[in-house]
Structure formats: structure tokens, C-alpha cells
User: Fold this.
Amino acid sequence: MGRQWLHAKRAVVNNRKGQLVGKLVKEITVAAKLGGGDLAANARLFAAVDKAKKASVTRDVIERAIHKGAGTGGEKIDISAITYEGYAPHKVAVVVECYTDNVQRLAPQMRVHFKKGILGTTGSNKFLFDHLGIVEAYTPASAPDLEATAIEAGANDFAPLTHDENDDIPAEGAQGARFTCDLGSIHAVTVWLKANGWTIITSEMGYIAKSYPELSEEHRAEVAEFLHEIEDNDDVQRVWAALK
Assistant:
């Protein structure tokens, strides 16, 4: 779906707990700044808080980030949401979502990251992606009707998801699925799935490539290394790529 290259890196990321928590807190803060502090009315904030809870971020830290972003606390926020577009090696389209308190620092860093690729301008390749809500989940049911589930949950589309594609799904005894929906429907889809026995893995806004270039294993490894380097930047929140 554009971020599967991250799964191979999960063990490394989990060892960088401080960096991960910092990114999650920043996501919550910016989401609250953009859409307010009400989780029920702010799908982006709901998804960010849900992800933080899964990473064991404490309630106090989450609430402080919400208040800071929404302007209901004593601290002021000076974080900008910036999206970079470009191409990895072998013409793989990439969208990089960043939150930073220093654009002058981030811009040259991104130019360095994209030395082996092409750093585009705003709008240069975002049209190659669909901007959607993404909810990944699994159920212990042996053969769930995914189409009926998607319809009842309010999703627009669905696809089966296996343990090999997302290792948060148990290798045995579970059926995984990825549901895509309108951006404003993330909360409703997530709540319905939870209420009907599904365990939520991911609930977020994202970019899904409309098509994927054919790559050899060697080229795929080069692209993955390029994406890993970008993702390691502290100001980078998400990296989406046309890479299966």
C-alpha cells in the first residue's frame, strides 16, 4: 500500500522508543492544532491518539499534546506541517509528510535525502496517489465476509491482509484486512470494526499509489534503503511510496 517497506525495519524502530514517541506526540499536537481537540470531531486526531496508545504513550503526555495543539494549555505551538514530493531511485513516486519547528533546517536536509532521487515541487506527483483513510485490522473469524464488513463499516474498499504484509496480524487464527475510506470516515469505520470484534492495527490518513512500477529485487532494495534514510529524520512523520 506504499509503506510495506517499513515492516522490515520495525525491530529497529522499536528500539528507538524516544524517537517514535516524539513523532507520535508531534502528530497529536499538529492534528489538534489543525482540527481542534475533540476526538469525535477530528478524525486525524483520533487516529493519532489511537496510534500513540498502541505505542504505550501515557495519558498525561497525550492530553498535554492535545491541549498544546488546540491552544487550551499554557504552551504555544510553533510546528508547521510540510509535505515534500519527489522520486526515489528507479522513478518510484514518494510523498513525505513532515512536522517541523524549523523549516530552514529541514529543507536542506530533504535536499540531501533526495540526492539519489529527485526532489520535486508541490503538486509534482501527489496526483499519482489517492489521499484516503486507511484502517488495517484483523478478526479471529475464520472466513469473514470482507465485502459485507466494508459496507457495514462505511468503507469504500477493502483488501485481504496477511501476516507477511503486516506482521502485527497473527500468523495463524486470524483474518486481516485493509479498509480504505473517505478521510472524514476514519473514526466511524474504526469504531464500527472495534465494536464488531476486529482488532485495529492502523487507523490513519495516507497516500496510496494508483500504480506501481515493476522493480527487480536489487532495485527494490535500493529504493527501500532510500526510504529508510528519509524516515529516520526526526521531522519526518510518514513516507508514502509507490512500492509494493
